[in-house]
């Protein structure tokens, strides 16, 4: 009897967790169903693209693309009070712009988990290393900053003074 109850409990937990993870995977940043909902979502997207937000790693060109598509969606939504009254051409325009925005934001979501299989030196066994996009980007940026700092500090390959030394000596 205990085995049956524990098996049923395990099945229920698995079913609930599968439903939750499916919901998280299908979450779309933008679902322009009404003008009011779109305005709220567009404001939230713009806020999340700021430093510290979920979409802070959107490049400048992709940010421009997102802004253009948000403006296009606003224009299409202003033609009709309700999405249900749209013609097929308006629906296609809206869907295309919406999917473009969602693709950019999903690809650059700082919460997105990225896993790589890596092998340690001297070992044939690999292990998974998982990080969020935000963690990877911050580590990459910190590494670049540290490399630049070290390059400014040490002499160049020719043995000549580096840029920081020249600036300090008035050789700018």
Structural notes for this entry:
- By secondary structure, this protein is mainly alpha-helical.
- The chain has two domains: 11-107, Substrate Binding Domain Of Dnak, Chain:A, Domain 2; 133-168.
- The chain has six helices and two strands.
- It has helices at 2-26, 35-48, 60-79, 88-107, 133-153, 163-168, and strands at 113-119, 126-132.
- The chain has a two-stranded antiparallel sheet.
- A hairpin with a 6-residue loop joins β1 (113-119) and β2.
- α2 (35-48) runs antiparallel to α3 (60-79).
- Mean pLDDT is 79; it is low at 5-24.
Characteristic key phrases:
8% strand
| Overall structural domain count | 2
Q: Estimate the helix proportion, in percent.
A: 55-70%
Shape: elongated
Helix-strand string: HHHHEEHH
The first-level CATH class of the largest domain is given as: Mainly Alpha
Unreliable stretches, pLDDT < 50, 5 or more residues? 5-24
Number of helices: 6
Distance between the termini: 83 Å
What structural class results from the helix and strand content?
Answer: mainly alpha
Strand order of the largest sheet: 1-2
Computed Rg: 25 Å
CATH topology of the largest domain: Substrate Binding Domain Of Dnak, Chain:A, Domain 2
Total beta strand runs: 2
Strand content: 5-15%
Query: Do you know the CATH architecture of the largest domain?
Result: Up-down Bundle
Overall mean confidence score, pLDDT? 79
Can you summarize the main beta sheet? 2 strands, antiparallel
